[in-house]
Specification:
It comes from Alteraurantiacibacter lauratis. By secondary structure, this protein is mainly beta. The protein is built from six helices and 25 strands.
Length: 316
C-alpha cells in the first residue's frame, strides 16, 4: 500500500458573512506585459473559480485552483468516466477531518500550455468540491506565478523560465515556503503576529485555536457550519478581526471562522497563531498573484483606490 499524505484545505461554508474592507497605498505604475497563459475563469458555486483542464487528452473539465492543497483532486465521477482504474490509497487531510481515500494515477494533466505527467490525485465526491470536476493543487502549480484577475475574470499562469516582473502591482509581500505552500509569516491580525496562508480553495478565512486564544477581542457574531473535502461537517464560530496587515496590504473589519482543524497541524502550525486567507477576502483586491518561484504574494488595489480614501475603513 502506498501511503501518500495529502492536504486539501477546501471548505464550503453554509452561512454567509458580512463584507470586509480593504486598505492599501496609492496605486503604482501600469501593468507591464508578460508572456503568460491566459485562462478564462468561471465562477464556481461557492464563489471560487474554475479553469478548463485536460486529463489524459480528454476534456476540458472544470477544475478549481487551490493554492492551499498540496496535491490535485478528482471527483469519483470523473475518475470513473476516464476509467482510471490504477488506484491506491492515501490519507486526505481536510479542514475538519483526516480520511483514507482512494487515489488514481494520471498519465497527463494539462492546462494552458503546461503538461504534467505521472501524477497522483485523491478521489472525492463531487459535491464536496462544489460540483467541480477536480482541483489543481500545488503539485501542478509549483515554480509558477498564478495570477487571479477578479475584475476581468481571468487567471494567468506564467511558466518556469518566463520573465516575472513585479511592476504594475501595488503591493509585493514576501513569503516563506513550507511544505510547498507560501506562508506570509510576518502578518499581524489585531496586533498578533500570525502566519497567513493564501488559499484560493477556501471560501472564507479560517483561524486556528492558537490565534483565537491570542486575540483579546472576542466578538461572537454567528455560528457557522462547514463541510470539508471529505464530506465531514464541522461547527465554527465567526468572529470579526479589526485588521489584518501584510506589509503594506491591509484588510479591515472582516470575519474569521475559528474551528478545530487538522490542516494546521499537518502544516506544523498548530502551536502558533495562523490563519487561512480565503477567497471572500482576496476578492477585495482587483488582482492577486501567488508567485511560487520568487516566494512573493502580489496585490493590486481596486480601481481609483487611494490610501487617504481607505485609511480607517472598518475601524470599530
Amino acid at each position: 500500500m502506498h501511503w501518500l499524505s495529502l492536504i486539501a484545505s477546501t471548505a464550503l461554508a453554509t452561512a454567509s458573512a458580512a463584507d470586509a474592507q480593504v486598505a492599501a497605498p496609492i496605486a503604482a505604475a501600469a501593468l507591464a506585459d508578460e508572456t503568460v497563459e491566459v485562462l478564462q475563469l468561471q465562477d464556481e458555486l461557492y464563489s471560487r473559480m474554475t479553469v478548463p483542464v485536460m486529463i489524459n487528452g480528454q476534456g476540458p473539465f472544470n477544475f478549481m485552483i487551490d493554492t492551499g492543497a498540496q496535491a490535485s483532486v478528482l471527483s469519483h465521477a470523473l475518475a470513473d468516466r476516464l476509467q482510471l482504474t490504477e488506484r491506491e490509497s492515501a490519507t486526505l487531510v481536510g479542514m475538519a477531518s483526516e480520511r483514507r481515500v482512494e487515489t488514481a494515477l494520471i498519465d497527463e494533466i494539462s492546462f494552458g500550455s503546461g503538461i504534467y505527467r505521472d501524477g497522483v490525485a485523491a478521489l472525492v465526491e463531487g459535491d464536496n468540491i462544489g460540483g467541480a470536476d477536480g482541483i489543481l493543487g500545488l503539485d501542478s502549480l509549483q515554480d509558477r506565478r498564478v495570477l487571479i484577475d477578479f475584475e476581468n475574470r481571468q487567471m494567468e499562469v506564467a511558466h518556469p523560465g518566463e520573465r516575472q516582473s513585479n511592476r504594475g502591482f501595488d503591493i509585493v509581500v514576501r513569503a516563506q515556503r513550507v511544505a510547498g505552500q507560501l506562508i506570509i509569516a510576518r502578518a499581524v491580525i489585531d496586533g498578533v503576529r500570525t502566519a497567513v496562508i493564501v488559499d484560493t480553495g477556501a471560501q472564507g478565512s479560517i483561524g486556528n485555536a492558537a490565534l483565537e486564544r491570542r486575540l483579546r477581542s472576542r466578538r461572537d457574531n454567528a455560528a457557522i457550519r462547514m463541510t470539508d473535502i471529505n464530506g465531514v461537517e464541522a461547527l465554527g464560530a465567526i468572529r470579526y478581526a479589526r485588521s489584518l496587515v501584510m506589509d503594506e496590504a491591509s484588510i479591515n473589519n472582516f470575519p474569521v471562522t475559528f474551528a478545530e482543524s487538522p490542516t494546521f497541524a499537518a502544516m506544523g502550525l498548530e502551536d502558533e497563531p495562523a490563519m487561512i486567507l480565503g477567497m471572500s477576502e482576496l476578492r477585495l483586491f482587483r488582482r492577486v498573484a501567488i508567485d511560487f518561484a520568487s516566494r512573493r504574494v502580489l496585490f493590486d488595489l481596486p480601481a481609483n483606490t487611494r490610501l487617504q480614501e481607505t485609511r480607517g475603513w472598518g475601524q470599530l
